[in-house]
Structure formats: structure tokens, C-alpha cells
Amino acid sequence: MARQPAPAAGDDDDGSTLKALARAIDLQQRGRLDDAEREYATLLACNPRDATVLINAGVLALSRGDVETSVARLEAAVALVPANAIAQGNLGFALVHA
């Protein structure tokens, strides 16, 4: 039996996940890193296998200086989408800082 891919951000019916992801990214870009972390944590609590959220949350963790969380999130993303060059590149960058 083939493994089903993890649902991606925005796969919900009302678009609330995609809106929350957009909020998290906006907060991150505006330098409100603690607020962005809370948004990502909420998203990951609902769907810990969302590769898009894992990648973005991993990058955020690294920018906050939390290398361990960054590597864990990015490793999880790479496990879900091993051919994703963005996930691979970000994981490599995080591992350089580990």
C-alpha cells in the first residue's frame, strides 16, 4: 500500500491553515519572531507532518538561534519531501550551525 502524502498547508476546506501560515510568514518577515513562533507552533500542533510549515518553522528557529529545533524541524521536512531542494538546503545550512 502506497503511503499517502501529508496534507499541505491550505488543504483545509476553509483556508484557515493557509491564512495562519501567511500570518506566520508575515510576522517572521516583520521581525516579530516570537509571535511567528507561536503561529508555527499552533500550525504544527494541528498537523505535524506539514512540510511547508516545517520548513518555514525550521528557518525561523534558526534565525532565533534555536539550532536544535531548527534541525529537528528541517529533518522532519526532508523525511516527508526528500526531493525538496529548499528543505535540503535549509537543513544543510542549519547543520553547519549545529
Largest sheet descriptor: none
In round numbers, the mean pLDDT is 90
The computed structural class is: mainly alpha
Q: Strand content of the residues, in percent?
A: under 5%
Q: What gyration radius follows from the Cα positions, in whole Å? A: 13 Å
Ends distance: 37 Å
Q: Report the order of strands and helices.
A: HHHHH
Count the helices. How many? 5
Characterize the quaternary organization of these chains.
Answer: single chain
Note the overall shape. Answer: globular
**Poorly predicted segments:** 1-7
DSSP helix fraction: 55-70%
**How many β-strand runs?**
0
Quick description:
With 98 residues, the chain is mostly helical.
Explain this structure to me?
- The protein is mostly helical and about 100 residues long.
- Helices cover about 70% and strands about 0% of the residues.
- Helix 1 packs antiparallel against helix 2.
- The longest helix is centred in the first third of the chain and has 14 residues.
- The N and C termini lie far apart (about 35 Å).
Q: In terms of topology, how is this protein built?
A:
Elements: H1 16-29, H2 33-46, H3 51-63, H4 67-80, H5 85-96
Helix pairs in contact: 1-2, 2-3, 3-4, 3-5, 4-5
Features:
single chain; 98 residues; mainly alpha; globular; disordered N terminus
